[in-house]
Amino acid sequence: MVTRRSAIKAGAVLTGAMGTAGLVMPSPGSASEASDIDPNTVTKFICPMPLPRVLQPESSTYTTDYYTIRMKEARKEVLPGRWTTLRTFDGDFPGPVIKAQTGRRVVVRQINDLSVVTSIHLHGAHVPQSSDGWPMDTIAPGGGSKTYTYPNEQPHANLWFHDHAHHVESENVYRGLAATYLLTDDIEKGLNLPKGEFDVPISLRDAHFDHAAELVYTMGDRARECVVANGKTWPYYEVRARKYRFRLFNTSNMRFFSLKLSDGSSFAQIGSDGGLLAGPLQTTSLALSPGERADIVVDFSQYPRGTHLVLENGLAPTPDSPLAQVLQFRVTQSAPDSSTVPDTLRSLPTLPAPVSERSIVLQSDETGTDRHGYIDGKVFDPDRVDSEVQYGATEVWTVTNANENAPHNFHIHLVQFRVLERNGKPVTSGPESGLKDTVTVFPGEVVKIQATFTGYRGKYVYHCHMLDHSAMGMMATLQVV
After folding, report:
1. In order of start, what are the domains of the chain with their CATH numbers?
2. Torsion-angle region of residue 423: left (phi > 0), alpha (psi -120 to 50) or beta?
3. Tens digit of pLDDT for each residue in 19-65?
């Protein structure tokens, strides 16, 4: 299980969040300059946290909902009173929400009005190769388009979609191309969890701004020290004294979070990447690497009206670091609450017997100026197949981080997987016991996962989801035959 202690043991690589973590080091002047905005001068908790807009289908049939989304530049107030140019889905930051239902198709036409290529990946989704966002299957800038079909033949999950065009995915996502896709089913809907206005998606990330409030993008930038929640730096969110469900998405390129409430009180984690856990987990902290999601329920009924409670980041280098705080909750009034968190949330699928095993080694250069990322000693080559898997096969993959300092995480397209072991210890409970599609692998760690490759044949990728790393080449091709 990944805990705050295990994260901190990864060293200054994580607590500094960028450090010399095997990343491309900033060139001179790319770290924070006197002319850049000092995060310590940004006033916290003066802007309300917005909620992302829910998209409505432009048309629907008995089986399918249809959407059209335009990728375009937009200027948004991210810093209080300042405006920032962003690359967006439909002009929204964070991107809008698509709400989908298991068994009902969603078709999205993505139009690229940006000046760079894009390729849109629905992260965590079980989709055909043609709609997966293959890194080289790009949408031309200046009005090019592509239609993606999402069958939604998987159980409920908190998914998100983002750019995946190779070599530019890192900058495109950093500049705003990330949005939310909430897939539900009858199992989830049948529970009496907080719903409606009390079910809140929150996208977390970090940023570095220059003196004009524009985003500074440099691979491996150590100066991304402004924390952004739902498109605002250090916002506040008003809550009533009752239970809330928060769906947390780490949409950062590189930033790890260990989230906790400032009074140290516990909350219930009810889900991870692939939907609900088997049962709720009472915890006081929650670790999220880039690309990971978590579903939690916080009960504010224990707090009197007027309470201000901060969601903190336990991986900040110091308690007074700007990275130490994320957002503020303000308890405004009492409210009736009939929602519950049951002891049993779902039945997880039985693990079938594996038919084969393979080993994957993640590594990035930690010295020198021309740095790359590798899987099994190779940088990504779209013309090379790195792993061939038989359709329907269940495999166990042993993933090793060969770096001494650099953390990584590991994401496979097409499938959800189960974490079997971490450093030789079985994972039978805790936040990693549910369905996952992204898993943290700290320096020197070995993580064993199991997946069944069914549904679709074709070429997919697996990679480090620290997007600066994948853009450096830490990605490989999987072919299901």
Report:
1. 4-29+192-334 (2.60.40.420)
2. left
3. 333 223 333 334 445 689 999 999 999 999 999 999 999 999 999 99
